[in-house]
Specification:
Layout lengths: L1 H10 L5 E2 L2 E2 L6 H7 L17 H7 L4 H10 L6 E2 L3 E2 L6 E12 L2 H13 L9 H5 L4 E6 L12 H11 L3 E4 L1 E2 L2 H5 L6 E3 L1 E2 L7 E6 L3 E3 L2 E3 L4 E5 L2 E5 L4 H24 L4 H5 L4 H13 L8 H9 L4
Parallel strand pairs: 5-6, 6-7, 7-9, 8-10
Antiparallel strand pairs: 1-2, 3-15, 4-9, 5-11, 5-14, 12-13, 14-15
Helix pairs in contact: 4-9
Length: 310
Amino acid sequence: MKRRFLLLAFSSFPFFYSNLKAQSVQYTKAQILAYSQEWKGERLPDGRPKVPDALLERAKKISLEEAWGVLRNEGYRNQFVSGWQIMRPDEPMTGRALTVTYMPSRPDLENPIKEQGKKENRKGASNSWPIDMLTKGDIYIADGFGKIVDGTLIGDNLGNSIYAKSGNGVIFDGSARDLEGLEAIQGFNAWVRGYDPSYIQNMVVGCINCPTRIGQATVLPGDLILAKKEGIIFIPAHLAEKVVVNSEFIALKDTFGHLRLREGKYTPGEIDTAWNDTIKTDFLQWLKDNPDKVPMTREQLDGFLQGRTW
């Protein structure tokens, strides 16, 4: 029993051993699948859920409050983190999470990790390993345990590589350097805890594509990330479409309600409470008359309305 307990305990570490043989620095497809069984769609080659590109783009237009409300109703209460330094706060960023956990280094941990990295043909320092794995639409998101000085996970060289591979930026519970150089990369954005001229020291990758912690939130590989000036929402892949469609529907209701209030057709009391059948019918007709305002497909809208309780 004691030996079994120890094996289970070690297997829960980001970088672990079994029978004294080092395992991969990154989670396997089987491990990622175990954490994302509710996702039924396409997957990336590394096993992460592949939330469709079109959904990533639509998510940029939903509000954090709307997304937060849907997740809370689904029982996901640890999905929002605020308090960031944002490079371009007026430019929202969405993408699929490629997660990385960094750890304070010590020789008996760092040396085996580096040896394993060599066996896996990984190049350069460990903070560049995740960059080599990025694909279009990914966001490199890392738990850098809040380290600022000597915790700069990237500078402008790595920033250029990140943007070339992903078309996105980064989210670091840690720091970055070369701010002016990073700002020169058009389209690149960053949510970090700070900037510092130092270079990364005494840190090592613990695991890639494993569940990680960002602030008070847990992030899984493949999560849909919605980053805005207020903070960041981490949306489980299997709920991505539901969150986006629900949020879009709420926004449509608000647009319709504001319009009718300006026209004086309904009172604030009627719009701010449960809608009666007259308002519902008027709203549904407004949707038909204004298809250009409806971001979801007709199939998604009809499916949503069937389960809608208003």
